[in-house]
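During the no-cost extension, the postdoctoral fellow (Dr. R.K.) reprocessed legacy sequence entries with the updated structure-token encoder. One reprocessed record is reproduced below for audit purposes.
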Amino acid sequence: MNLPTIEIEATTSTPKINCDPENGRISMEGDSYPENAFEFFKDLLTWTETYLHTQTTPLTLELRLVYLNTSSVKIMMDIFEMLEEAYAKGRQVSVNWVYDSRNERVAELAEEFKEDCTFPFLIIAAD
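Re-encoded structure tokens follow.
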């Protein structure tokens, strides 16, 4: 099954999202406080689930998120849960979460997510 590439440009309240099936990469960057998070992230959730069920290549989630509201955090939990299930079945999945070293709140959030994950999960401070 050929999965499409998804490219969503950032707005003031939504992150830039890129789903790249050729390279097995999802990237998200920016602020995330959409009015309806489930509606905004619906295609990303479907794409991730489809990728994990139809592809055999590794999947890397690259995050450069600045701010997440509560509903965006819930969506991220859903994505990490999908990755965790796939990893438990032997899939290669990983997360690289890059954050601004001056933003301790995002670093703490990333650490909280990492605690629940057994797959490779890097938290990287950037200047």
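The chain has a mean pLDDT of 96. DSSP finds three helices and six strands in the chain. The remaining legacy entries will be reprocessed before the final report is submitted.
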